[in-house]
Design a protein that fits this description.
Helices cover 35% and strands 22% of the residues. It contains five helices and eight strands. It has an eight-stranded mixed beta sheet, sandwiched between helices. A hairpin with a 3-residue loop joins strand 7 and strand 8. Helix 2 packs parallel to helix 4 and helix 3 crosses helix 5. The longest helix has 24 residues. The relative contact order is 0.16. Bound molecules: zinc ion. The site of zinc ion has 5 residues, from loops.
């Protein structure tokens, strides 16, 4: 996928996620890797309405969060987290959303360091094909200092689950491609809503 196509994918995906209520109030950030070595990726700018991003709101970033092209806008405050995830996993896209269900799930599991999901057909959408598989999604503490948050995410993530929850904050999910990262966000959101619904039935 070329840079312009990736820019358009980010604009379109942000609009869809915004419409689903996962990126309200300018929250969240999405990125797509455009070059592996040295790393370069496109990321949404900070403080922009995710329902109506334009091409100028998608910034090209090199290592250490440096802007490749001049812009008056700032890259997302959480750019360092994206960079760490690209460095650690063979990800092609990293998507971060602030959904109500992610925050509620953290509240439901407030004394735990992970939430598990099993016996649901939708788990296959995470590329986990064993019907007996138990998916472990880590929950990490939220940190205001982004480098600290990035280290915490890398320390607690596991290679078999393409995502992590930040307590009372939101979800990070990634994939080999932008298509896969989007699917993973959608599957996690389904699992969150199922888990919350189940707790309400009890
Ligand atoms: Zn965030």
């Amino acid at each position: 996928m070329g840079i312009e196509e990736s820019r358009n994918t980010l604009i379109q995906t942000a609009r869809e996620f915004y419409q689903r209520g996962w990126m309200l109030g300018t929250s969240g950030n999405l990125s797509i890797r455009t070059q592996e070595s040295p790393l370069q990726f496109l990321i949404t700018a900070s403080g922009r309405d995710k329902g109506s991003l334009t091409e100028q709101d998608i910034l090209l970033i090199a290592e250490n969060g440096l802007l490749v092209e001049p812009s008056s806008l700032k890259p997302s405050a959480e750019t360092a987290v994206h960079e760490k995830i690209y460095g650690h996993f063979s990800a092609g896209a990293v998507y971060h959303v602030h959904s109500v269900s992610a925050a509620l799930l953290c509240h439901l599991h407030r004394n735990k360091s992970k939430v598990t999901f099993s016996s649901l057909e939708m788990i296959k959408g995470l590329d986990i094909w064993d019907p007996k598989a138990i998916v472990e999604l880590p929950i990490v503490t939220n940190h205001a200092e982004i480098p600290e948050l990035a280290s915490e995410i890398i320390r607690h993530s596991n290679s078999s689950t393409p995502g992590i929850l930040i307590r009372n904050h939101g979800l990070y999910a990634w994939g080999k491609t932008s298509f896969e990262a989007k699917r993973h966000v959608e599957i996690f959101e389904y699992l969150f809503q199922y888990n919350i619904g189940l707790a309400m039935l009890r």
